[in-house]
Design the sequence.
């Protein structure tokens, strides 16, 4: 609504109140404003309206769940089965394979680049026969619901720039995250919760850093920042009243505040004052909706069991996973879980096992839970890290123990849900999982595909900043990956 | 409903223009009307970037557009039907039509009409407005302040009038917040009401420290200042002296020209002052990494790109980022030109990787405020002591033992260190305190001995003794011990500290397993001595790894079980006086020069370095002999001991201050510059054509190159502020304008290029820019000019008609009204509550922050992983002094749109979110501020609720509340009171929130009720906004 129109409306409302005197008191006004803010019919009342003209076309997915495995999970030990590596055990990675490509300075000084085959057994899963290793037994059961992409590649070779790239489409800090782009473009249907929610579950050994830039809004207005649902302390920052203050006190305060701010609006005529009144009401509603969201007492036992033993533990991946489902149920646009600890330069087999114990069962459970509630058909799920790992060993190599360095040239991600073909494997790599041999998917293309599913033409989804029509997908022309689209 | 971002103001300007004249005859201006259309729709393929150019057609220059190819030209001036461009934009053939359908940028009808009229009128091209030097146009008549003259001329054209003046209460609060970031007190409001001279008020506020702090804040966003490196581990970096310098620079009203030179090239100024060097840290504020595995060349490249792009954006308002990879599609900046500027920054001496250190070189040690005074005072004392020492030396009747006949016999020198007390400055410690006893308990010498009785391992020790105990060759360490006959220990140990404790000697059983057995860190000296008598223990310094020259600052007496007395301890050595350089002047003179020099002061060392003994003059020999007697000679302990130990103490104090001085990153170039190349497609490992330092061709050239050297950063800085540069002054003036009016005269304040918005009031912008230069780049004068304008002083009331006509308030028919910035909101709350601690400067402090802001993102090994909240004053400092960790900035900052400082930020967003509401209602720092404000209200001396409400309202808004407002507060106060009267526990809990203690004289229920009222007041829209 344009500000002038809104002003007129409020002028009329003011006359109404003047007519009624203050007999109705502040409560009535606040309630009225509160209801107004909740009413869907009035777009100005929406907390998270979509941009005009968006979505560009009918979306296949309304919501996005992005499970980011931070630190770069080893594709060779999880999803990119390379049986021939066994023949090359402890032999030099052929020069023709390495092809003088750059490697990090953590291994560039190594005298040898001995091939380290995965010690884990692989299996063809489901009817689709998608290959996965024994590390993720629960994911075996969702194979027919996903599309496995084995040929994702990225530009950066170190964590910081690569994490920034995977989430913002740029290695240089300052660009909006994927979730911020989506909440900016599409808004959210839930008026009592943020449009974009982020979890950063606790892990035993936080050997990798996360950066708030992975869920903040960069050059977009900060209201499109991802809001963290926290494992300890207030689940949402400052959502709890101060000690000794109860909801009734807050209501009384807000009623008075609403009335006084309304008078301020009358004095200055600034439409932002109206927005502020509505935002305080939204804050009040969040004080109820957030505790309700995190209260698992209504979940049935079978569902809880499906997510595994840590489901009730705030801060655990499993807990984040079930809350993710509850958020999606409530119409929250984007939920992102960033799970740390996947940077296995050494002791890879033991460490990756622990990591998988954290995420395998809850991830599979989340998929099944979404499916059984009919939510998967319009929710897009993405699972993956910021780059892959090398076929050659970093540090000492034995059959049972090895480490792997960073490898941006290919890695695996999987996608599922709204708009995505099921049960397919896309792309392939050479025998060493070192070079892509078929259907490469650059992260910009992956992001274009995500936007496509969400009803957005990535090439038209722009924001002017620093002299450029900025896009999530970069300046180069890319296309969504058709083969992945249902 | 944020201020909408984007580029609509140009369109807006155009619509007005059409509305003003007759749409079909009004002359079309290329810069105003046409360029943006071509830039948005055509230049990507038909512009500056030669590589991306399609069909060899370029539309950004007249030559390109008018060129005839195969008998046709894209534009034939004056002839629309002959112009291929016109045909193409109307073509129905998808292969022909322009812009091509796949760009999804169709032209609007209005845009097509503008192009048509432009061609009809002759298709005149103009150089982009911002690249032409500004000129002052004649100030229109009608208003005393030229700002108003220009603005009101435009308003008249629009059929509008400026708003009436704002109420004085509104204005005074506006000015205080805008100049100091803090609201006025009621007394200050009264003073202004009594004497409403705005000029005087502005002048006095500019004298305040808070002015510098507030102005600095905006600059720090541009400089991307923060307290951590920003990437990967995101460890702490010491950069805050730069932040404090920015505050100082604004307080001193440093001219913007010098402000520029110092920051870009302070290190290159002749004999740079401390401040000039600190300022050069601007170039070091970029994010850096220390991530393992990073490739050196990549980060040298990236750091240089960041520094170049930032300088270009901050001073030239241009986005150079695009030219990193390809010729700028829209602006005339070529890739080669970008790398020519990059070359100024490419030879920076800092390492590619920051090493995750606090003090990544090059650094500067900066004395803290007060340190210089302290150092000077110590200097004076040291000088006075030198005098005392000189007189004492003169009293010494010295005969050189080497000159005696017969030569004296060997003697034992003994230095007693521990006798009846811990030596000077030693910090006595132990698992239980030191215990001294006197006779009749066993005492060996002096009046006391120390004693310890223990089960198992036990010890007493000291560290930090000064002067230290020197070890020479042949030194023996000794101590006297008495073991109790009835309760003897199983083991005794002496430990010596020269920085580490890895020097241990023990007697008896090997019960204490410190150090490595049978090594200097755990040497067995023999069995336990006989009990019931004093025994002297001796250890050769070499046995415990103490080399000549070692200095001991600590000593430990350690035992296992039993009761042990210790007494007189120190060092002894046997020496031949005639050959000992600490006893014989001749022996000292005979030493090698290098050995002698070690005993000299720095000044003496410089003078005597390389000068053979036989070249000393008689005067020099006397001088050195005096120095030797004063500093080296060991035979005058009695005469000189006290003075010397005092002197050592003073010198140590000085050294400590120097050691604890702040470190700040500064800029410096490598002695041998790096060669710079165009980096193909912006890839660090693909150097192309070699480039040399230069500025872009579409801007004025650098002066002639000096003969003796290449151009450097100082030339670049001077070029920016020589007064002829078309961008620098405009960009600076526009940013200051933006600071006060919320939107710049050029809305895209970081982009003055062809993709940016056109200036809303071009003549005004140019007039201000030229005047700014003529005024000697005087920032305060510019600010004063803006703040005394009617445009600034008028009412901010928006009427529906005005909102409709000018929603973004670009015409300024009303004053701006917008939400205060993150820092101002917090500082205001602290200030109104009386909690604000005005201490200036220093290392970043850590105020309240909820748990788990840093931890869930931080690396286990990062030194900024765990947030350790400060105490006391640290909680209440101004927000500019809050420690800024880039990967997880404080929520009170980010929720209110403060940038993470990962890159330069020219304009902050201004969002309005429920997260802000939650924070202002519930965050401990705001609730504590509310409670302290409540205490002020209750202690204000006014008796009844009505008067208190009047008082409080005025404190927070600067004005009196009206009857309705008073009534609302009265009612809600009654509600809260009734509630807390029923729930005393709740009241107590609420008023106990925060570190400051509730005033015990006040009734908890009453204070709690007023706390919620104060919480309400601090959340008023009127309080959160500049009105």
Sequence:
């Amino acid at each position: 609504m344009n500000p002038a129109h809104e002003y007129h409306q409020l002028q009329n409302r003011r006359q109404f109140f003047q007519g009624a005197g203050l007999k109705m008191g502040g409560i009535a006004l606040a309630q009225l404003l509160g209801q107004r803010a909740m009413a869907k019919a009035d777009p100005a009342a929406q907390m998270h309206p979509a941009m005009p003209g968006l979505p560009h076309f009918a979306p296949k997915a309304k919501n996005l769940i992005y499970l980011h495995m931070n630190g770069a999970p080893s594709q060779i030990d999880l999803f990119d089965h390379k049986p021939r590596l066994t023949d090359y055990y402890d032999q030099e990675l052929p020069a023709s394979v390495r092809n003088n490509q750059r490697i990090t300075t953590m291994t560039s000084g190594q005298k040898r680049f001995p091939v380290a085959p995965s010690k884990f057994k692989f299996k063809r899963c489901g009817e689709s026969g998608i290959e996965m290793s024994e590390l993720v037994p629960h994911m075996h059961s969702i194979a027919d619901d996903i599309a496995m992409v084995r040929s994702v590649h990225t530009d950066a070779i170190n964590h910081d720039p690569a994490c920034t790239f995977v989430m913002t489409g740029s290695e240089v800090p300052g660009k909006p995250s994927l979730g911020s782009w989506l909440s900016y473009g599409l808004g959210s249907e839930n008026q009592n919760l943020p449009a974009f929610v982020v979890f950063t579950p606790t892990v035993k050994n936080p050997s990798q850093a996360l950066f708030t830039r992975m869920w903040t809004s960069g050059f977009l207005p900060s209201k499109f920042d991802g809001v963290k649902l926290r494992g300890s302390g207030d689940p949402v920052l400052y959502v709890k009243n101060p000690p000794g203050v109860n909801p009734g006190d807050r209501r009384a305060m807000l009623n008075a505040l609403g009335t006084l701010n309304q008078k301020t609006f009358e004095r200055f005529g600034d439409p932002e004052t109206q927005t502020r009144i509505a935002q305080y009401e939204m804050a009040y509603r969040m004080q109820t909706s957030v505790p309700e969201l995190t209260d698992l007492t209504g979940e049935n036992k079978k569902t809880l069991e499906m997510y595994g033993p840590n489901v009730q533990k705030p801060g655990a991946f499993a807990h984040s996973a079930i809350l993710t489902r509850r958020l999606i149920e409530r119409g929250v646009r984007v939920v992102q879980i960033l799970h740390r600890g996947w940077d296995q330069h050494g002791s890879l087999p033991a460490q990756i096992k622990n990591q998988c114990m954290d995420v395998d069962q809850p991830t599979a459970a989340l998929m099944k839970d979404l499916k059984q509630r009919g939510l998967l058909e319009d929710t897009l799920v993405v699972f993956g890290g910021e780059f892959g790992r090398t076929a050659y060993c970093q540090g000492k190599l034995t059959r049972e123990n090895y480490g792997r360095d960073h490898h941006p040239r290919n890695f695996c991600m999987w996608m599922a849900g709204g708009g995505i073909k099921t049960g397919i494997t896309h792309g392939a790599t050479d025998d060493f999982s070192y070079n892509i041999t078929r259907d490469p998917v650059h992260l910009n293309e992956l992001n274009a595909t995500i936007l496509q599913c969400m009803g957005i033409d990535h090439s038209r989804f722009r924001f002017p900043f620093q002299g450029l029509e900025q896009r999530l997908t970069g300046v180069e022309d890319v296309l969504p990956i058709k083969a992945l689209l249902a | 409903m944020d201020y909408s971002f984007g580029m609509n103001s140009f369109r807006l300007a155009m619509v007005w223009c059409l509305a003003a004249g007759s749409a079909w005859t009004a002359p079309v201006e290329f810069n105003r009307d046409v360029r943006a259309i071509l830039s948005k729709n055509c230049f990507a393929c038909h512009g500056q970037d030669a590589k991306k150019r399609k069909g060899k057609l370029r539309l950004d220059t007249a030559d390109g557009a008018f060129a005839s190819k195969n008998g046709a030209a894209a534009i034939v001036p004056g002839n629309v039907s002959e112009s291929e461009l016109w045909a193409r934009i109307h073509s129905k053939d998808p292969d022909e039509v322009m812009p091509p359908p796949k760009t999804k940028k169709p032209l609007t009808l209005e845009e097509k009409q503008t192009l048509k009229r432009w061609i009809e009128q002759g298709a005149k091209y103009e150089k982009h407005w911002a690249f032409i030097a500004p000129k002052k146009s004649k100030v229109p008549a009608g208003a005393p302040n030229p700002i108003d003259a220009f603005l009101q001329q435009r308003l008249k054209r629009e059929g509008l009038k400026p708003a009436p003046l704002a109420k004085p209460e509104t204005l005074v609060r506006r000015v205080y917040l805008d100049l100091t970031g803090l609201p006025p007190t009621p007394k200050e409001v009264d003073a202004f009401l009594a004497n409403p001279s705005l000029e005087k008020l502005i002048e006095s506020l500019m004298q305040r420290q808070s002015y510098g702090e507030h102005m600095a804040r905006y600059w720090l966003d541009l400089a991307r200042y923060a307290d951590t490196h920003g990437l990967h581990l995101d460890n702490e970096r010491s950069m805050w002296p730069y932040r404090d310098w920015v505050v100082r620079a604004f307080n001193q009203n440093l001219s913007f020209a010098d402000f520029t030179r110092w920051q870009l090239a302070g290190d290159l100024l002749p004999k740079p002052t401390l401040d000039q060097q600190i300022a050069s840290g601007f170039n070091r504020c970029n994010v850096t990494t220390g991530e393992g595995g990073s490739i050196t060349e990549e980060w040298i490249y990236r750091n240089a790109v960041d520094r170049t792009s930032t300088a270009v954006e901050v001073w030239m308002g241009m986005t150079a980022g695009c030219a990193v990879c390809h010729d700028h599609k829209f602006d005339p900046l070529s890739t080669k030109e970008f790398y020519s500027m990059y070359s100024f920054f490419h030879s920076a001496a800092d390492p590619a990787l920051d090493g995750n250190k606090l003090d990544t070189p090059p650094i500067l040690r900066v004395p803290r405020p007060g340190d210089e005074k302290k150092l000077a005072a110590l200097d004076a004392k040291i000088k006075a002591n030198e005098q005392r020492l000189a007189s004492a030396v003169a009293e010494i009747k010295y005969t050189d033992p080497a000159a005696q006949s017969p030569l004296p016999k060997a003697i034992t020198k003994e230095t007693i260190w521990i006798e009846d007390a811990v030596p000077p400055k030693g910090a006595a410690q132990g698992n239980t305190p030191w215990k001294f006893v006197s006779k009749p308990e066993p005492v060996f010498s002096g009046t006391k001995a120390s004693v310890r009785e223990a089960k198992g391992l036990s010890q007493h020790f000291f560290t930090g003794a000064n002067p230290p105990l020197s070890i020479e060759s042949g030194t023996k360490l000794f101590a006297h011990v008495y073991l109790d006959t009835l309760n003897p220990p199983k083991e005794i140990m002496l430990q010596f500290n020269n920085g580490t404790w890895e020097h241990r000697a023990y007697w008896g059983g090997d019960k204490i397993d410190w150090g490595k057995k049978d090594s200097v860190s755990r040497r067995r000296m023999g069995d336990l001595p006989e009990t019931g008598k004093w025994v002297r223990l001796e250890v050769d310094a070499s046995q415990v790894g103490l080399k000549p020259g070692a200095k001991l600052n600590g000593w430990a007496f350690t035992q296992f079980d039993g009761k042990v007395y210790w007494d007189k301890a120190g060092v002894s050595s046997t020496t031949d006086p005639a050959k000992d350089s600490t006893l014989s002047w001749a022996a000292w003179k005979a030493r090698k020069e290098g050995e002698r020099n070690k005993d000299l002061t720095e000044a003496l060392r410089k003078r005597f370095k390389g000068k053979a003994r036989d070249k000393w003059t008689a005067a020099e020999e006397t001088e050195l002999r005096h120095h030797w007697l004063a500093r080296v000679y060991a035979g005058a302990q009695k005469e000189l001991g006290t003075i010397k130990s005092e002197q050592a103490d003073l010198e140590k104090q000085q050294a400590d201050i120097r050691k604890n001085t702040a470190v700040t990153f500064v800029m410096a170039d490598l002695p041998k510059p790096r060669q710079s190349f165009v980096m193909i497609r912006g890839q660090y490992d693909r150097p192309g054509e070699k480039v040399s330092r230069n500025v872009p061709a579409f801007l004025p050239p650098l002066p002639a190159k000096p003969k003796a050297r290449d151009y450097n950063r100082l030339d670049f800085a001077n070029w920016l502020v020589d007064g002829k540069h078309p961008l620098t002054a405009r960009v600076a003036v526009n940013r200051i304008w933006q600071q006060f009016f919320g939107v710049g005269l050029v809305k895209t304040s970081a982009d003055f290029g062809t993709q940016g918005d056109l200036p809303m009031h071009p003549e005004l912008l140019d007039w201000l820019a030229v005047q700014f230069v003529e005024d000697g780049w005087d920032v305060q004068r510019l600010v004063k000019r803006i703040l005394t304008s009617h445009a600034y002083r008028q009412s901010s009331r928006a009427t529906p008609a005005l909102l409709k006509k000018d929603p973004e308030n670009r015409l300024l028919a009303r004053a701006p009204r917008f939400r205060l910035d993150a820092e101002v909101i917090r500082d205001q709350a602290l200030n109104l509550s009386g909690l604000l601690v005005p201490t200036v400067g220093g290392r970043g402090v850590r105020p309240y922050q909820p748990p788990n802001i840093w931890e869930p993102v931080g690396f286990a090994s990062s030194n900024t992983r765990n947030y350790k909240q400060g105490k006391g004053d640290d909680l209440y400092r101004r927000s500019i002094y809050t420690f800024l960790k880039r990967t997880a900035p404080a929520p009170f900052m980010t929720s209110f749109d403060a940038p993470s400082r990962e890159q330069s930020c020219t304009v902050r967003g201004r969002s309005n979110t429920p997260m802000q509401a939650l924070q202002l209602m519930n965050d401990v720092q705001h609730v504590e501020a509310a409670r302290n404000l409540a205490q002020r209200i209750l202690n204000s001396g006014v008796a009844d609720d009505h008067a208190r409400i009047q008082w409080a309202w005025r404190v927070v808004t600067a004005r009196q509340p009206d009857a309705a407002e008073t009534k609302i507060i009265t009612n809600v106060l009654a509600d809260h009171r009734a509630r807390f009267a029923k729930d005393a526990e709740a009241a107590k809990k609420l008023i106990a929130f925060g570190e400051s203690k509730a005033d015990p004289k006040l009734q908890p229920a009453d204070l709690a009720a007023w706390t919620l009222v104060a919480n309400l007041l601090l959340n008023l829209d009127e309080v959160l906004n500049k009105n």
